[in-house]
Fold this protein.
Amino acid sequence: MVKTRDLANSSMNASGVIVKAGEEFEKGRILSEVVPEAYKKAHQQRLYHMHDLEFFTTTYNCIGVNVSDLLGAGAYTFRAAVRKLSREIVALTNMQSGGIGFLNFDADMSAYVGEESAQELAEEFRELFLDLNVYSRKGCEKAYVTFNFGLDESRKGRAVSLALLYAYGMGDGQGNPFIFPNLVFKLRQGSNVREGTANHDIYREALKSTARRMVPTYYNCDSLSNRGADPAKIGIMGCRTRVVDNLYGEKSGLQRGNIACVTLNLVQIAYGFAGDAEGFILRLKEVMDEAKESLVFRFQTLMEQADFSEVYRRRLYKDSEHGDAKLAFRNGTLAIGFIGLWDALSVIFGRRWSKVSDMEEYLDEAFHIILVMREKTDFYTKACGLNFSLLASAAEGVSGNFASYDALHEGKGMEAAEKGYYSNSFHVPVNVAADFIEKIQFEGRFHHLCNGGSITYVELDEMPEGNVEAVQEIVEYAYVNDCNYIGLNFPLDNCNSCGHIGRMGGCCPCCGSADIRRLRRVSGYLAEVDRFVTGKKFELLDRVGHGK
């Protein structure tokens, strides 16, 4: 019986065991009966990974929405709106394979605010958060939901933003931080970043929450990637997914999302080209061409075989009112992701990275690799008439999957594979010594190339509670260095017996209990350490802090 998990956001309860077995069966059927041999071979040999393979013929990945897209027309009290939204999220999350992003949640919910007090608003949101942390998706996963907020300057919109933060701060029945929703504060110079702007006070409250809970993370509406887009119509869906540009409409993520994703194993490609950077680039282009073809094939198969009648009925996707799958889903994106940039470069140039200065010499080569990939996806968009994007993959499941496979094959005996995981996207490897200034400056160069989504994390050794200025300094340094999406990580342990929060050893320093819930950010969301997949457990052991 299958008892392993691919995601930290899952439970191996009775439903989980059955669902996992069914998913594995369906993946095998898709590979044997649907996917052409070349793509099947590449997937099985970990040259690239076709995400959500079990949904290949069934549904799309993620979507960006307004609250009204789910609630429809009608007058609701705030409480009734929140209650219905909870039910509609459960319904939608079971219609797709990935996340739901509410891109302008504070403005959306302001329409339902009446005469409720701040406490009443927060308590309603807390009830919603409690609902969202039930295993309601497939009976064994929590709904992957992201609330983007922070821009609405109206009285009611500001009240919604503050209520979200207060509700999150309350935590669950034991005072534990909520896993979901993922809260994302939208940074904009004229709205909240600059002192004296209308929502600067809410921004400060968000920073206080981050200092204590790691949440919210921060989306840069002023980044090079986002210029020319309406800040109210863009945001994060999932752990970093960004959908903005569209061949068939305005720059917007609303009623659109990523349809499917393939993640490239840059390190495996590099094993065949040690000392040959040009050969690596040529092979990378070939692999990208095949990955593109696999995505086009998947798109066409999905359009022919999936039942989108509920999407049409509810008008969830842009242009879905026409009842034509291709007309609607051409608005979505097909993402080519990648992991292991600096692991690949270490193989190609025979170098070991111990500090950022070791990597500076190869920065031009690294930038060239990502630029080539972005130019290829831009070319595919024009040539295929479909929206391709380049994604700096989180790759929660495959970071370890790729490495463990390669350690027995192309990467046998190689340090890059045998450490048990590959590094996230273009990130400075987690075991490389760097302060937050070095890390942000280094990674900020790559964000604008990854139009499908990217993030920079700063790892701290301790919870920075009470030091909001330090959190603000890090967030704003990333903001001015063009990081598209920004998160802070630190050990977050919670004693289930007395509620004490902080970094703990084997037992609580206050009451001595060993009943401790240990939260860390796995890729784009919080998770309990004992739920981490194998590769991320290896990575967690190697993480070093980026304090200045």
The two ends are 48 Å apart (CA to CA). DSSP finds 21 helices and 15 strands in the chain. The chain has a mean pLDDT of 93. The first helix runs from residue 14 to 33.
